[in-house]
Amino acid sequence: MQYLPNLREVLKQHLASEYSRKEIQDLFLSSGFEALVCAPWRKLSLIEQFYSQRDWFQPQSSECLFPITFRVLEELQYSYTHRVVAKDSLQKQFARILVNGVRVDGAEYYPNNGVAWKQDAAAPAFRRPHSANALDFLFVTALTEEHQVLKAVLRRLCDSMGGSDSNILRYRYRERASGACSIAATCAYSMGAVSLGVHIAPILDVLKPKRAVLFGIAAAVDRTALALGDVPYASQVISLDNIAVQRDGFMQFRTEGFPTDPTIERGIGEIQTSARPYGAWQTACVQVIEAVVSEVNKCRRRKIKCPDNIDRPHILVGNTAGGPFLIRDADFQDALTKSYSQLRNAKYRFVAPAHPKLLSAEMEAHGFMRAAHQACIPASVIKGISDLGDARKAVVEKRTGGFYRAYACSNAVLALLHCLPGR
Question: Architecture of domain 209-418 in CATH?
Answer without folding.
Answer: 3-Layer(aba) Sandwich (3.40)
